[in-house]
Design brief:
Pfam families: Galaxin_repeat. It comes from Ridgeia piscesae (Tubeworm). This is Galaxin-like repeats domain-containing protein. Keywords: Signal. The chain has a three-stranded antiparallel beta sheet, with no helix packed on it. It has a two-stranded antiparallel sheet with strand order 2-3. It is 0% helix and 54% strand. It is mainly β. The N terminus is likely disordered. The chain is flat. The protein has no helices and 17 strands. The protein has two domains: 63 residues, no CATH class; 70 residues, no CATH class.
């Protein structure tokens, strides 16, 4: 994705400074009035990032909300689904296993290409095997 940045528009505001002797002096202080919009290329068309969505070279106007994402050619709500490979799967706390299965990483593991229920809350996958993180040592 190629990004093109638009120049920042500067505004000049004036401030009045009063010296100890009572003389007032006007000074110019530049300030940024608005952050620049980010423009990107989608296929052969330019679009405003955040206001539009680019899915497989197609611009979707307007972007319904910030949670709408693309997975291949499919739009999905990232609050409830994840993109796993080229598939949209349910998974609010999701992770992806082998690009095929979505799962809740709080309760399950993907280890050695297999999806399984965590045998222990501190279980994790290490080199294709299930390992258990040691319990934290008590503070003294």
């Amino acid at each position: 994705m190629m990004h093109i940045w638009v120049c920042i528009v500067m505004a000049v505001a004036a401030a009045v400074v009063t010296a100890e002797n009572g003389n007032e002096t006007e000074i110019a202080t530049p300030s940024v009035t608005k952050p620049p919009p980010q423009i990107a290329l989608c296929g052969s068309r330019l679009y405003l990032v955040g206001e539009s969505l680019c899915c497989q070279g197609d611009v979707i106007l307007p972007r319904p909300n910030v949670h709408i994402q693309c997975c291949s050619e499919v739009r999905y709500d990232s609050r409830y689904y994840i993109c796993c490979g080229e598939n949209v799967v349910f998974g609010k706390h999701g992770a992806c296993c082998e690009g095929k299965w979505g799962y809740d990483d709080r309760t399950h593991l993907c280890c050695g290409g297999k999806l399984m229920r965590k045998p222990h809350p501190r279980a994790y996958c290490c080199y294709g095997r299930v390992c258990i993180k040691p319990a934290p040592s008590p503070k003294q």
